[in-house]
From TrEMBL:
Signal peptide: none annotated. Residues 19-120 form the Primosomal protein N' 3' DNA-binding domain. One of its GO terms (molecular function) is ATP binding. Keywords: ATP-binding, DNA replication, DNA-binding, Helicase, Hydrolase, Isomerase, Metal-binding, Nucleotide-binding, Primosome, Zinc. GO terms for cellular component: primosome complex. The lineage of its organism: Bacteria, Pseudomonadati, Nitrospirota, Nitrospiria, Nitrospirales. Belongs to the helicase family. PriA subfamily. It comes from the Bacteria. This is Probable replication restart protein PriA. Its cofactor is Zn(2+). The gene is priA. Residues 214-240 are annotated as: Disordered.
């Protein structure tokens, strides 16, 4: 695609034309003239500065030609300003370009947006870094009087000093003629644009503060001089399994082939293996990237690896991630630790990519381009011929049943497990929040000073119904997810396929009229705890109380100082600094997460309950966990009760296969939003029809239905869910239909979004 503006005079050029991708919401390339001075240096993969409208932007050269585009005169094309200072060489630039292209293809995103992810981060500079300087031919034109009158003033201004003038200085005048003079002078090669280095400091910093890891690990801040002060004592046994792991790591690192391992192991075993893997990676002269879903945990990992003192570690701050990487690209083997964006760290010769807590939804980018760090990590591993380790105490089903991955399981130490009890709330009085057994156990723990943690999951909670007498819950007959109450229609609706049922006035199973919204809030739990234990110190920690940073700091300080007897919280407990294991952990409604209308509800509930169990002391130290539930036979709850993760994975996979959800199928979530409800509904139905026509009914398209989650004020949003067996075909059909929708609704205030491999079904 060309930028047809201001005709240029017939000036000597290199005869080369470059197609350049611009980092915007654009998939097509723009064609520019390659100035003669750049002809010897320009190459595919080089980063360049080009005029784009009335500004200067970075772009990447994707192809070169000796002919202009068909139907476009070269006089109507603009010229490349300059090579971006400090850009990667041709080979490395080409690999970054290919990475951005693959991401665009696999996540149905504009190539230009994906280019923003992989541009050398030290080049994301402001336009003020661009300066125009006079060339020797330009100075000669001034001296000889051959410079045209309409260009003389600008050329004189630029030639006045060796430093020239900045682009920002020209912008301030807002004079169109000055800009046209700049373009004309560039075409004549009388001036040249250069990009100065970004003076801002390195974004890679050593951490100075201890931070957290997942629930159950025992951590205490300590002086920085103390070696590895933040970790539970590492496992020291030299078992056959440990030797097997080390031998595999060495073998795979030296094989120079892409390899994927799922490490299913408790925290203390993962951290030891991470350190070993990094040592072996650096020993063969390669670098490592370590990713965490939480910024605090990334800082903690960086601090721990730095404390070992054997290898260089830099932590990528999320706030600084758009800035330059500094030393990261210099070539010496190093270790980068960060959140999902660190997967794009411009390290040379990567040998290891380690994703800790790989099931964390935070690895999915919520904005365009909606990549998943786990998927991008595998793309990089394939390109770099590196080892990818997906590590977790409870890996996702997608990873556990990945046909490419090798599973390596390290069972937890049975002596570290607490006693786990199950309380069937169906046998308790109606409306019970604290069972009699839980109250007895709390009394013992408070009296002995062992401490009580009460967990209540409310995040992502959707309003649904439950019969208090028999446990009946309305579910979609096709998707088997709980039906949610819709205030609009006063009906129960499936958030996937749109099936609706009338609001029941009584239970269809037992005819009881005790139908209630599922779940109790943390505020009620706090009030009940204070009533039952008036002399105990009760602390509540949930999203509402953590919203203000200053209040959050005070709360976490109280948690760390152990100045409480009873701590009541949501899953936020597992996402920050952990506290020493307590004597009693009570889960008030172990099944509450099962009622969310999401096919991953059971998996996420299992993971949260597994984390909650990790907050209790070992049984030998009096540790106890009490799970209260209305569904004691559910496979997720039974797996936690028995400490049998394989039982959960096998039963959950069978359910996913039956219902055609990942990992048995690939998934895309499509949404249409706008201010006009009729137009949005029509567009969503039209998108569905296009998909079914394109795929010849090879895809399953559910919806459209009203979308869950937040919607802009005075807007409506409709959602489609698309299932397919072949991911490449699914991507192709989604892309083709999306492009058709964008063409048809351009300028009509309708927004169409495609999300491949969605993790948030809202």
């Amino acid at each position: 695609m060309a930028l047809p503006e201001h005709p240029a005079p017939a000036i000597r050029t290199s005869g080369l034309y470059a197609d350049v991708i611009i980092p915007r919401h654009i998939s097509k390339a723009f064609t520019y003239i390659v100035p003669h001075p750049l002809a010897q240096e320009i190459a595919v993969g080089r980063t360049v500065l080009v005029p784009f409208g009335r500004t200067i932007v970075e772009g990447a050269v994707i192809s070169l030609s000796d002919r202009p585009p068909n139907g476009i005169k070269s006089s109507r094309l603009k010229s490349i300003h300059c090579l971006a200072d400090g850009a990667y060489g041709t080979e490395q630039g080409s690999s970054w370009l290919e990475l951005s292209r693959i991401i665009a293809e696999q996540y149905v995103a504009p190539w230009g947006q994906c280019l923003r992810l992989v541009l050398p981060w030290q080049l994301k500079r402001r336009a003020s870094s661009v300066r125009y300087r006079a060339t020797e031919p330009g100075r000669a034109a001034l001296d000889s009087g051959t410079c045209p009158d309409h260009l003389r003033a600008m050329l004189t201004r630029i030639a006045r000093t060796r430093r020239g003038i900045s682009l920002s200085a020209i912008r301030k005048s807002r004079d169109r003629h000055e800009w046209e003079a700049i373009e004309d002078l560039e075409r004549r090669s009388w001036i040249v644009a250069t990009a100065s280095a970004d003076p801002r400091p390195d974004a890679l910093v050593q951490t100075d503060e201890p931070v957290a890891h997942e629930a159950g690990a025992r951590v205490a801040p300590a002086p920085s001089s103390s070696p590895s002060p933040l970790l539970p004592p590492p496992a020291t046994e030299h078992t056959e399994r440990d030797s097997l792991w080390e031998n595999r790591i060495v073998e795979y690192l030296r094989a120079d082939q892409p390899k994927k391992i799922v490490l299913h192991a408790p925290w203390e075993h993962r951290i030891n293996r991470l350190a070993d893997a990094i040592r072996h990676t650096l020993a063969i002269g390669k670098s490592a990237i370590v990713l965490s879903g939480e910024a605090d945990k990334a800082k903690w990992l960086g601090r721990f690896l730095s404390d070992i003192g054997e290898f260089p570690v830099s932590v990528l701050s999320p706030a600084a991630s758009p800035r330059r990487f500094g030393r990261a690209e210099e070539g010496s083997p190093s270790v980068i630790v960060g959140t999902r964006s660190a997967v794009f760290a411009p390290l040379r010769s990567i040998g290891l990519i380690w994703i800790d807590g790989e099931e964390d939804p935070a690895f999915k980018e919520p904005r365009e381009p909606r990549y998943h760090a786990r998927g991008v990590a595998w793309i990089r591993a394939e390109m770099e011929r590196a080892l990818l380790v997906l590590a977790s105490a409870h890996p996702s089903l997608e990873s556990m049943f990945d046909a490419v991955a090798e599973i390596h399981t390290v069972p937890p130490d049975p002596t570290s497990r607490p006693i786990v009890e199950l309380i069937d709330l169906n046998r308790e009085p109606r409306g019970t929040l604290f069972s009699r057994r839980l109250v007895e156990a709390m009394d013992e723990a408070v009296s002995s000073g062992a401490g009580v943690v009460l967990f209540l999951n409310r995040k992502g909670y959707a309003r649904t119904l439950l019969c208090r007498d028999c446990g009946w819950m309305p579910r979609c007959s096709a998707c088997v997810v709980p039906l949610a109450y819709s205030r609009e229609s006063d009906r129960l609706a499936c958030r996937y396929c749109g099936e609706t049922d009338p609001f029941p006035r009584s239970c269809p199973t037992c005819k009881a009229v005790h139908l209630v919204s599922v779940g109790e809030g943390t505020e009620r739990a706090e009030a009940e705890a204070r009533r039952l234990f008036p002399t105990a110190s009760v602390l509540r920690l949930d999203g509402d109380r953590l919203r203000r940073p200053s209040a959050a700091r005070d709360l976490w300080e109280r948690v760390r100082s152990n100045s409480w007897d009873i701590l009541i919280g949501t899953q936020a407990l597992f996402q920050h600094l952990p506290f020493p294991r307590r004597g009693l952990v009570g889960v008030l409604q172990a099944d509450s997460g099962l009622h969310v209308p999401d096919f991953r509800a059971a998996e996420r509930m299992y993971q949260l309950l597994d984390d909650a169990v990790g907050c209790a002391r070992p049984a030998a130290q009096g540790g106890r966990v009490i799970l209260q539930t209305k569904f004691p036979a559910h496979h997720a709850i039974q797996a936690v009760l028995s400490g049998s993760p394989h039982r959960f994975y096998e039963e959950e996979l069978a359910a996913r296969r039956l219902l055609h959800f990942p990992p048995a199928r690939h998934l895309a979530a499509l949404s249409v939003s706008g201010a006009d409800q009729t137009e949005v509904t029509t567009a969503a139905a039209q998108w569905k029809a296009r998909l079914e026509e394109l795929s010849d009914a090879m895809l399953t398209v559910l919806g459209p239905v009203p979308a869950m989650g937040r919607t802009p004020k005075r807007h409506v949003r409709r959602q489609l869910l698309v299932k397919g067996t072949d991911r490449a075909l699914l991507c192709r059909w989604v892309r083709d239909s999306l492009e058709a929708m964008e063409r048809e609704y351009r300028g009509r205030r309708i927004t169409c979004i495609a999300d491949m491999d969605p993790v948030d079904m809202g």
